[in-house]
Automatic annotation (TrEMBL):
Gene3D superfamilies: MFS general substrate transporter like domains. It is a multi-pass membrane protein. This is MFS transporter. GO terms for cellular component: plasma membrane. The chain crosses the membrane at residues 42-63, 70-96, 102-121, 128-148, 154-178, 199-223, 229-250, 262-283, 289-309, 330-352, 358-377. GO terms for molecular function: transmembrane transporter activity.
Amino acid sequence: MPLALLALAIGAFGIGTTEFVIMGVLPQVAGEFGVSVPAAGWLVSGYALGVVIGAPVLTVLGTKVSRKKMLLLLMGVFVVGNALSAAAPTFALMLAGRVVASFAHGAFFGIGSVVAAGLVAPAKKASAISLMFMGLTVANVIGVPGGTYVGQAFGWRVTFGVVTLLGVVGFLGVALLVPEQGKPEAAKIRTEFAAFRSAQVWLAMAMTVLGFGGVFAAITYIAPMMTEVAGYSAGAVSWLLVLFGVGMFLGNLLGGKFADKALMPALIVTLAALGITLLLFTVTAHSQALSAITLPVIGGLGFATVPPLQKWILDHASAAPTLASAANIGAFNLGNALAAWLGGVVIAAGLGYTAPNWVGALLAGSALLLAFLAAFLDHRSKTTETTAPAAPVAAQV
Protein backbone atom coordinates (compact mmCIF):
# COMPACT_ATOMS: atom_id res chain seq x y z
CA MET A 1 0.00 0.00 0.00
CA PRO A 2 1.48 3.39 -0.96
CA LEU A 3 2.12 5.54 2.11
CA ALA A 4 0.22 8.35 0.36
CA LEU A 5 -2.98 6.32 0.88
CA LEU A 6 -2.27 6.33 4.61
CA ALA A 7 -2.03 10.12 4.55
CA LEU A 8 -5.38 10.34 2.77
CA ALA A 9 -6.92 7.86 5.23
CA ILE A 10 -5.71 9.96 8.19
CA GLY A 11 -7.35 13.01 6.66
CA ALA A 12 -10.55 11.03 6.13
CA PHE A 13 -10.35 9.79 9.74
CA GLY A 14 -10.12 13.35 11.06
CA ILE A 15 -12.99 14.57 8.86
CA GLY A 16 -15.19 11.63 9.86
CA THR A 17 -14.44 12.20 13.52
CA THR A 18 -15.25 15.91 13.53
CA GLU A 19 -18.48 15.36 11.59
CA PHE A 20 -19.98 12.81 13.98
CA VAL A 21 -18.31 13.40 17.36
CA ILE A 22 -20.45 16.46 18.06
CA MET A 23 -23.41 14.13 18.65
CA GLY A 24 -21.67 12.49 21.58
CA VAL A 25 -20.86 15.78 23.35
CA LEU A 26 -23.96 17.76 22.34
CA PRO A 27 -25.36 18.04 25.90
CA GLN A 28 -22.00 19.31 27.22
CA VAL A 29 -21.72 21.93 24.47
CA ALA A 30 -25.33 23.03 25.03
CA GLY A 31 -24.74 23.31 28.77
CA GLU A 32 -21.58 25.42 28.46
CA PHE A 33 -23.14 27.90 26.04
CA GLY A 34 -26.49 27.97 27.81
CA VAL A 35 -28.57 26.85 24.82
CA SER A 36 -31.13 24.06 24.51
CA VAL A 37 -30.17 20.68 23.08
CA PRO A 38 -32.37 21.27 19.98
CA ALA A 39 -30.64 24.63 19.44
CA ALA A 40 -27.25 22.93 19.81
CA GLY A 41 -28.40 20.58 17.04
CA TRP A 42 -27.58 23.43 14.63
CA LEU A 43 -23.93 22.43 15.11
CA VAL A 44 -24.87 19.30 13.16
CA SER A 45 -27.09 21.09 10.66
CA GLY A 46 -24.59 23.90 10.10
CA TYR A 47 -21.80 21.46 9.35
CA ALA A 48 -24.01 19.49 6.99
CA LEU A 49 -25.14 22.59 5.10
CA GLY A 50 -21.50 23.68 4.79
CA VAL A 51 -20.72 20.37 3.07
CA VAL A 52 -23.69 20.85 0.73
CA ILE A 53 -22.27 24.21 -0.37
CA GLY A 54 -18.59 23.39 -0.18
CA ALA A 55 -18.58 20.04 -2.01
CA PRO A 56 -19.53 21.25 -5.51
CA VAL A 57 -18.04 24.75 -5.21
CA LEU A 58 -14.60 23.66 -4.03
CA THR A 59 -14.57 20.70 -6.44
CA VAL A 60 -14.97 23.16 -9.31
CA LEU A 61 -12.45 25.63 -7.86
CA GLY A 62 -10.04 22.71 -7.43
CA THR A 63 -9.52 22.57 -11.17
CA LYS A 64 -7.45 25.76 -10.97
CA VAL A 65 -4.58 24.21 -9.00
CA SER A 66 -2.89 20.83 -8.69
CA ARG A 67 -4.75 18.14 -6.78
CA LYS A 68 -2.04 17.97 -4.12
CA LYS A 69 -2.18 21.72 -3.50
CA MET A 70 -5.97 21.53 -3.29
CA LEU A 71 -5.79 18.72 -0.74
CA LEU A 72 -3.34 20.79 1.33
CA LEU A 73 -5.67 23.79 1.14
CA LEU A 74 -8.62 21.66 2.23
CA MET A 75 -6.74 20.21 5.21
CA GLY A 76 -5.68 23.75 6.14
CA VAL A 77 -9.32 24.86 6.11
CA PHE A 78 -10.19 21.81 8.23
CA VAL A 79 -7.53 22.69 10.83
CA VAL A 80 -8.61 26.35 11.05
CA GLY A 81 -12.29 25.43 11.46
CA ASN A 82 -11.69 22.91 14.23
CA ALA A 83 -9.25 25.20 16.04
CA LEU A 84 -11.93 27.90 16.00
CA SER A 85 -14.48 25.43 17.40
CA ALA A 86 -12.09 24.36 20.17
CA ALA A 87 -11.44 27.95 21.27
CA ALA A 88 -14.85 29.49 20.53
CA PRO A 89 -16.00 31.80 23.35
CA THR A 90 -19.58 31.93 22.06
CA PHE A 91 -22.05 29.52 20.46
CA ALA A 92 -22.08 31.62 17.28
CA LEU A 93 -18.32 31.27 16.85
CA MET A 94 -18.55 27.56 17.61
CA LEU A 95 -21.10 27.25 14.82
CA ALA A 96 -18.87 29.32 12.51
CA GLY A 97 -15.96 26.98 13.20
CA ARG A 98 -18.12 23.97 12.35
CA VAL A 99 -19.16 25.53 9.05
CA VAL A 100 -15.56 26.45 8.12
CA ALA A 101 -14.37 22.91 8.85
CA SER A 102 -17.23 21.46 6.80
CA PHE A 103 -16.10 23.21 3.62
CA ALA A 104 -13.20 20.74 3.37
CA HIS A 105 -15.38 17.64 3.64
CA GLY A 106 -16.95 16.92 0.25
CA ALA A 107 -14.11 18.19 -1.94
CA PHE A 108 -11.53 16.23 0.08
CA PHE A 109 -13.30 12.95 -0.59
CA GLY A 110 -14.01 13.83 -4.21
CA ILE A 111 -10.46 14.94 -5.09
CA GLY A 112 -8.89 12.40 -2.73
CA SER A 113 -10.65 9.58 -4.57
CA VAL A 114 -9.07 10.68 -7.86
CA VAL A 115 -5.65 10.95 -6.23
CA ALA A 116 -5.97 7.55 -4.53
CA ALA A 117 -6.95 5.89 -7.81
CA GLY A 118 -3.94 7.45 -9.52
CA LEU A 119 -1.51 5.99 -6.99
CA VAL A 120 -2.05 2.36 -8.00
CA ALA A 121 -2.44 0.12 -11.02
CA PRO A 122 -5.81 0.25 -12.82
CA ALA A 123 -6.88 -3.13 -11.43
CA LYS A 124 -6.45 -1.85 -7.86
CA LYS A 125 -8.18 1.54 -8.14
CA ALA A 126 -11.34 0.52 -6.30
CA SER A 127 -9.30 -0.97 -3.46
CA ALA A 128 -7.22 2.20 -3.19
CA ILE A 129 -10.34 4.36 -2.95
CA SER A 130 -11.85 2.04 -0.35
CA LEU A 131 -8.68 2.30 1.74
CA MET A 132 -9.03 6.07 1.84
CA PHE A 133 -12.72 5.81 2.77
CA MET A 134 -11.83 3.29 5.44
CA GLY A 135 -10.54 6.25 7.41
CA LEU A 136 -14.12 7.55 7.51
CA THR A 137 -15.62 4.27 8.69
CA VAL A 138 -12.88 3.67 11.26
CA ALA A 139 -13.58 7.17 12.59
CA ASN A 140 -17.03 5.97 13.56
CA VAL A 141 -15.66 2.92 15.35
CA ILE A 142 -12.71 4.57 17.14
CA GLY A 143 -12.59 8.34 16.60
CA VAL A 144 -16.16 9.26 17.50
CA PRO A 145 -16.47 7.07 20.63
CA GLY A 146 -12.96 8.03 21.68
CA GLY A 147 -13.67 11.71 21.11
CA THR A 148 -16.90 11.39 23.08
CA TYR A 149 -15.06 9.79 25.99
CA VAL A 150 -12.38 12.48 25.96
CA GLY A 151 -15.05 15.19 25.81
CA GLN A 152 -16.94 13.79 28.76
CA ALA A 153 -13.79 13.21 30.81
CA PHE A 154 -11.79 16.34 29.99
CA GLY A 155 -14.21 18.69 28.23
CA TRP A 156 -15.48 18.93 24.68
CA ARG A 157 -12.87 21.59 23.83
CA VAL A 158 -10.14 18.99 24.31
CA THR A 159 -11.95 16.74 21.84
CA PHE A 160 -11.88 19.42 19.16
CA GLY A 161 -8.26 20.20 20.03
CA VAL A 162 -7.34 16.57 19.36
CA VAL A 163 -9.27 16.64 16.07
CA THR A 164 -7.33 19.78 15.11
CA LEU A 165 -4.07 17.89 15.70
CA LEU A 166 -5.36 15.06 13.51
CA GLY A 167 -5.86 17.63 10.79
CA VAL A 168 -2.27 18.84 11.20
CA VAL A 169 -1.02 15.24 10.90
CA GLY A 170 -3.15 14.78 7.78
CA PHE A 171 -1.78 18.02 6.30
CA LEU A 172 1.83 16.94 6.92
CA GLY A 173 1.10 13.48 5.53
CA VAL A 174 -0.28 14.93 2.29
CA ALA A 175 2.62 17.38 2.03
CA LEU A 176 5.29 14.71 2.51
CA LEU A 177 3.78 11.59 0.98
CA VAL A 178 1.28 12.50 -1.76
CA PRO A 179 2.98 13.04 -5.14
CA GLU A 180 2.06 15.79 -7.54
CA GLN A 181 -0.40 14.59 -10.19
CA GLY A 182 -1.01 17.84 -12.00
CA LYS A 183 -4.34 19.63 -12.20
CA PRO A 184 -7.46 18.33 -13.93
CA GLU A 185 -8.49 19.80 -17.24
CA ALA A 186 -10.87 22.73 -16.85
CA ALA A 187 -12.75 21.69 -19.95
CA LYS A 188 -13.79 18.42 -18.32
CA ILE A 189 -15.51 20.17 -15.42
CA ARG A 190 -17.84 22.00 -17.81
CA THR A 191 -19.10 18.67 -19.09
CA GLU A 192 -19.85 17.51 -15.55
CA PHE A 193 -22.99 19.65 -15.39
CA ALA A 194 -24.54 17.49 -18.12
CA ALA A 195 -25.08 14.77 -15.50
CA PHE A 196 -27.80 16.85 -13.86
CA ARG A 197 -30.02 16.50 -16.92
CA SER A 198 -30.80 12.97 -15.78
CA ALA A 199 -33.94 12.53 -13.66
CA GLN A 200 -32.34 9.42 -12.16
CA VAL A 201 -29.45 11.48 -10.77
CA TRP A 202 -31.91 13.81 -9.04
CA LEU A 203 -33.93 10.86 -7.73
CA ALA A 204 -30.78 9.25 -6.34
CA MET A 205 -29.78 12.45 -4.55
CA ALA A 206 -33.32 12.79 -3.14
CA MET A 207 -33.14 9.20 -1.88
CA THR A 208 -29.80 10.04 -0.31
CA VAL A 209 -31.23 13.08 1.46
CA LEU A 210 -34.24 11.22 2.83
CA GLY A 211 -32.68 7.82 3.51
CA PHE A 212 -29.56 9.04 5.26
CA GLY A 213 -31.62 11.78 6.89
CA GLY A 214 -33.70 9.05 8.49
CA VAL A 215 -30.61 7.80 10.30
CA PHE A 216 -29.53 11.23 11.47
CA ALA A 217 -32.95 12.19 12.78
CA ALA A 218 -32.37 9.62 15.51
CA ILE A 219 -28.59 9.68 15.91
CA THR A 220 -28.19 13.46 16.24
CA TYR A 221 -29.92 13.32 19.63
CA ILE A 222 -28.59 9.93 20.68
CA ALA A 223 -26.82 11.26 23.80
CA PRO A 224 -29.89 12.77 25.49
CA MET A 225 -32.08 9.90 24.22
CA MET A 226 -29.86 7.25 25.80
CA THR A 227 -29.31 9.11 29.07
CA GLU A 228 -32.80 10.57 29.61
CA VAL A 229 -34.93 7.76 28.12
CA ALA A 230 -32.93 4.53 28.19
CA GLY A 231 -31.34 5.40 31.52
CA TYR A 232 -27.69 5.02 30.55
CA SER A 233 -24.98 7.07 32.23
CA ALA A 234 -23.29 9.78 30.20
CA GLY A 235 -20.14 7.67 30.08
CA ALA A 236 -22.00 4.80 28.41
CA VAL A 237 -22.70 6.92 25.33
CA SER A 238 -19.13 6.27 24.13
CA TRP A 239 -19.49 2.52 23.83
CA LEU A 240 -22.99 2.88 22.40
CA LEU A 241 -21.43 4.93 19.62
CA VAL A 242 -18.89 2.13 19.15
CA LEU A 243 -21.80 -0.24 18.50
CA PHE A 244 -23.30 2.23 16.04
CA GLY A 245 -19.92 2.61 14.30
CA VAL A 246 -19.42 -1.15 14.02
CA GLY A 247 -22.87 -1.37 12.42
CA MET A 248 -21.91 1.37 9.95
CA PHE A 249 -18.68 -0.41 9.05
CA LEU A 250 -20.36 -3.77 8.42
CA GLY A 251 -23.36 -2.23 6.68
CA ASN A 252 -21.11 -0.37 4.25
CA LEU A 253 -19.29 -3.60 3.33
CA LEU A 254 -22.44 -5.71 2.99
CA GLY A 255 -24.28 -2.96 1.13
CA GLY A 256 -21.56 -2.92 -1.49
CA LYS A 257 -21.62 -6.70 -1.95
CA PHE A 258 -25.41 -6.89 -2.33
CA ALA A 259 -25.51 -3.82 -4.58
CA ASP A 260 -23.06 -5.50 -6.98
CA LYS A 261 -25.46 -8.44 -7.29
CA ALA A 262 -28.84 -6.66 -7.40
CA LEU A 263 -28.61 -2.90 -6.85
CA MET A 264 -32.20 -1.71 -6.71
CA PRO A 265 -33.65 -4.74 -4.86
CA ALA A 266 -30.89 -4.32 -2.26
CA LEU A 267 -31.69 -0.62 -1.89
CA ILE A 268 -35.45 -1.20 -1.59
CA VAL A 269 -35.07 -3.93 1.05
CA THR A 270 -32.57 -1.84 3.01
CA LEU A 271 -34.73 1.30 3.05
CA ALA A 272 -37.81 -0.70 4.09
CA ALA A 273 -35.88 -2.36 6.93
CA LEU A 274 -34.43 0.99 7.98
CA GLY A 275 -37.87 2.61 8.22
CA ILE A 276 -39.23 -0.27 10.29
CA THR A 277 -36.21 -0.29 12.61
CA LEU A 278 -36.41 3.47 13.22
CA LEU A 279 -40.10 3.13 14.03
CA LEU A 280 -39.32 0.33 16.47
CA PHE A 281 -36.60 2.48 18.06
CA THR A 282 -39.31 4.70 19.54
CA VAL A 283 -40.11 1.65 21.71
CA THR A 284 -36.72 -0.02 22.11
CA ALA A 285 -35.13 3.28 23.20
CA HIS A 286 -36.84 2.77 26.58
CA SER A 287 -34.78 -0.37 27.22
CA GLN A 288 -31.03 -0.40 27.71
CA ALA A 289 -30.59 -3.89 26.25
CA LEU A 290 -32.85 -3.29 23.25
CA SER A 291 -31.24 0.10 22.59
CA ALA A 292 -27.84 -1.55 22.44
CA ILE A 293 -29.19 -4.02 19.87
CA THR A 294 -31.08 -1.45 17.80
CA LEU A 295 -28.26 1.08 17.40
CA PRO A 296 -25.87 -1.09 15.34
CA VAL A 297 -28.82 -2.25 13.22
CA ILE A 298 -29.68 1.38 12.40
CA GLY A 299 -26.03 2.11 11.63
CA GLY A 300 -25.74 -0.97 9.44
CA LEU A 301 -28.95 -0.35 7.49
CA GLY A 302 -28.21 3.36 7.10
CA PHE A 303 -24.75 2.84 5.64
CA ALA A 304 -25.86 -0.14 3.56
CA THR A 305 -27.65 2.45 1.41
CA VAL A 306 -24.41 4.29 0.62
CA PRO A 307 -22.84 1.92 -1.98
CA PRO A 308 -26.03 1.37 -4.02
CA LEU A 309 -26.89 5.07 -4.05
CA GLN A 310 -23.36 6.08 -5.04
CA LYS A 311 -23.30 3.42 -7.76
CA TRP A 312 -26.75 4.49 -9.02
CA ILE A 313 -25.39 8.03 -9.35
CA LEU A 314 -22.30 6.87 -11.22
CA ASP A 315 -24.31 4.57 -13.51
CA HIS A 316 -26.58 7.41 -14.59
CA ALA A 317 -23.83 10.03 -14.78
CA SER A 318 -21.16 7.81 -16.29
CA ALA A 319 -20.04 10.42 -18.82
CA ALA A 320 -19.53 13.10 -16.16
CA PRO A 321 -19.29 11.54 -12.69
CA THR A 322 -17.04 13.87 -10.68
CA LEU A 323 -19.40 16.74 -9.91
CA ALA A 324 -22.43 14.44 -9.59
CA SER A 325 -20.54 12.30 -7.09
CA ALA A 326 -19.47 15.37 -5.10
CA ALA A 327 -23.05 16.65 -5.17
CA ASN A 328 -24.24 13.34 -3.75
CA ILE A 329 -21.82 13.75 -0.86
CA GLY A 330 -23.53 17.10 -0.33
CA ALA A 331 -26.88 15.31 -0.50
CA PHE A 332 -25.87 13.03 2.37
CA ASN A 333 -25.15 16.06 4.46
CA LEU A 334 -28.29 17.88 3.37
CA GLY A 335 -30.12 14.87 4.79
CA ASN A 336 -28.13 15.28 8.01
CA ALA A 337 -29.09 18.95 8.24
CA LEU A 338 -32.76 18.33 7.48
CA ALA A 339 -32.97 15.49 9.97
CA ALA A 340 -31.16 17.35 12.76
CA TRP A 341 -33.50 20.32 12.29
CA LEU A 342 -36.67 18.20 12.17
CA GLY A 343 -35.53 16.22 15.20
CA GLY A 344 -34.96 19.45 17.10
CA VAL A 345 -38.40 20.72 16.08
CA VAL A 346 -40.27 17.71 17.50
CA ILE A 347 -38.21 17.73 20.69
CA ALA A 348 -38.78 21.47 21.16
CA ALA A 349 -42.50 20.85 20.62
CA GLY A 350 -42.50 18.71 23.76
CA LEU A 351 -42.87 15.33 22.03
CA GLY A 352 -39.89 13.83 23.83
CA TYR A 353 -36.41 12.60 22.92
CA THR A 354 -37.76 9.53 21.06
CA ALA A 355 -39.85 11.65 18.67
CA PRO A 356 -36.96 12.04 16.18
CA ASN A 357 -37.11 8.28 15.63
CA TRP A 358 -40.53 8.34 14.00
CA VAL A 359 -39.45 11.42 12.02
CA GLY A 360 -36.57 9.29 10.76
CA ALA A 361 -38.96 6.46 9.90
CA LEU A 362 -41.07 8.86 7.81
CA LEU A 363 -37.97 10.10 5.97
CA ALA A 364 -36.80 6.56 5.24
CA GLY A 365 -40.31 5.63 4.06
CA SER A 366 -40.29 8.59 1.68
CA ALA A 367 -36.93 7.44 0.28
CA LEU A 368 -38.44 3.99 -0.23
CA LEU A 369 -41.24 5.45 -2.36
CA LEU A 370 -38.66 7.27 -4.50
CA ALA A 371 -36.72 4.01 -4.90
CA PHE A 372 -39.82 2.34 -6.33
CA LEU A 373 -40.27 5.33 -8.68
CA ALA A 374 -36.63 5.19 -9.81
CA ALA A 375 -36.88 1.45 -10.43
CA PHE A 376 -40.08 1.91 -12.45
CA LEU A 377 -38.59 4.69 -14.58
CA ASP A 378 -35.39 2.70 -15.14
CA HIS A 379 -37.36 -0.39 -16.19
CA ARG A 380 -39.56 1.65 -18.52
CA SER A 381 -36.51 3.31 -20.08
CA LYS A 382 -34.82 -0.05 -20.74
CA THR A 383 -38.04 -1.49 -22.16
CA THR A 384 -38.40 1.48 -24.50
CA GLU A 385 -34.83 1.07 -25.72
CA THR A 386 -35.38 -2.64 -26.34
CA THR A 387 -38.63 -2.24 -28.27
CA ALA A 388 -37.65 0.88 -30.23
CA PRO A 389 -37.80 0.21 -34.01
CA ALA A 390 -34.49 0.09 -35.83
CA ALA A 391 -33.62 2.95 -38.14
CA PRO A 392 -34.78 2.28 -41.71
CA VAL A 393 -32.18 1.05 -44.15
CA ALA A 394 -31.82 3.12 -47.30
CA ALA A 395 -33.21 1.37 -50.37
CA GLN A 396 -30.60 0.26 -52.84
CA VAL A 397 -31.08 1.14 -56.51
